[in-house]
Amino acid sequence: MSAPAPAPDTPVVSVAGAIARMEAIDAALPAADGLACFNRIYLDVTRRVNSQLGQGFFADPEFMTQLDVTFVNLYFGAADAAADPAAVPSAWQPLVDRRGTAGIEPIQFALAGLNAHINHDLPLAIVSTCTARATAPDAGPHFADYQKVDQLLDAAEQSIRQSFEDAAELAADRHLSAVANLIGNWSINSARDLAWNNSLLLWAIRDVPVARGLLLDSLTASTVLASQLLLVAV
Q1: Which of 74, 109, 124, 183 could cysteine-pair with 34, CB 3.0–4.6 Å?
Q2: Read out DSSP for 127-151?
Q3: 119, 189 in Cβ contact below 8 A?
Q4: Are 233 and 176 in contact (CB under 8 A)?
Q5: Integer Cα distance of 64 and 25 in angstroms
Q6: How far apart are alpha carbons 149 and 123 in whole angstroms?
């Protein structure tokens, strides 16, 4: 049984709580809403990760659990702010602003959400988790466990793409073909590789405010640009 969903604006404290919150979001939003499209994908991925946390899959499940909770709370912060556009984190604004735009396919919304969450939020979550646990990104089994998540995401990404690409009308529908071309080069695993490298940079300059601020500004700008490109109505 899922844990009760925490109230909006209340950070979750467990992966079960995160799943319950995402299930509540899924039930509350119309299926075609752009945020809902991302939420469904994230819910699937989180369930896959949760299924492995107590199974010996990760060398340090406590670290991975805290990382998962820290990470998902950044998404919930953006989702909770969606009703007030001025309060939405910049990296999430393209998706929130265009979540109801006609001509954008569900897969585009989903990938734009993944882009915001992985390319911007994930490095922050890694550094925050390492700080809280008095460790470092390159210590112990952290990187090896991080890479193990890619194994779970491979299956998830394939199902995401198949849900779109297996449509019978794809071969004949020029609109859908254009969307396929638009999203074809975006990869979850490549984004996670880049996020890890950026977490190492953030960790190295964590005590240098000016450098840290410049890097965060660059991460935000590049994330926003990628989402804008993914969310073009074609």
Answers
A1: 109
A2: HHHHHHTT--TTSTTHHHHHHHHHH
A3: no
A4: no
A5: 24
A6: 15
